[in-house]
Structure to design on (193 residues):
């Protein structure tokens, strides 16, 4: 228990710093987070060309190096490491909770800091999103949820749950068309302010 708690605290402070840097890039305005998890070079290029994301979750160091060759210097690369989302520098960015059943949502609600909630493996993502948005509001921002989704349509649903939505989304895809559709969602959210 102590070991896990220390990791949560470390993930909380590192993730807060990471999101703070993301927020500062957005000129001090609190913006939604849009990340892409992919193995596709075309998806990375589509995200950068459309301006919908500069942060990518990739499989490992080899993929990061391959994508970094054509990415701008301000692109960020992250990877999954068990139940944590990590920067390649070794900093913990977020804890990860995979939602397969209602009890998993309860687990996510108890976390602190930034929590990546992976609902991409099931078809009932709206109810978890509403529960997570409510949990974040109840805890006064002590926890921020980023939801993994498979489509831009699911991204919009997550971002609009209970009107305020989750803090952000990670689009898990190797389909560059889906990344371009996410760019339209990003533009819609930005236009709303």
């Amino acid at each position: 228990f102590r070991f896990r708690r220390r990791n949560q605290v470390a993930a909380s402070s590192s993730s807060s710093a990471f999101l703070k840097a993301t927020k500062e890039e957005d000129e001090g305005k609190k913006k939604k987070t849009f990340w892409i998890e992919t193995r596709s070079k075309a998806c990375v290029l589509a995200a950068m060309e459309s301006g919908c994301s500069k942060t990518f979750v990739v499989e490992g160091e080899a993929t990061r190096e391959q994508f970094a060759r054509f990415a701008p210097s301000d692109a960020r690369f992250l990877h999954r490491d068990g139940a944590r989302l990590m920067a390649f520098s070794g900093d913990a960015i977020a804890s990860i909770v995979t939602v397969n059943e209602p009890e998993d949502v309860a687990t996510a609600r108890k976390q602190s800091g930034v929590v990546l909630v992976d609902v991409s493996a099931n078809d009932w993502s709206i109810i978890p999103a509403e529960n997570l948005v409510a949990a974040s509001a109840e805890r006064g921002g002590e926890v921020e949820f980023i939801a993994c989704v498979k489509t831009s349509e699911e991204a919009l649903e997550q971002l609009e749950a209970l009107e305020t939505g989750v803090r952000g989304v990670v689009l898990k895809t190797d389909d560059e068309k889906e990344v371009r559709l996410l760019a339209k969602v990003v533009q819609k959210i930005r236009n709303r302010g």
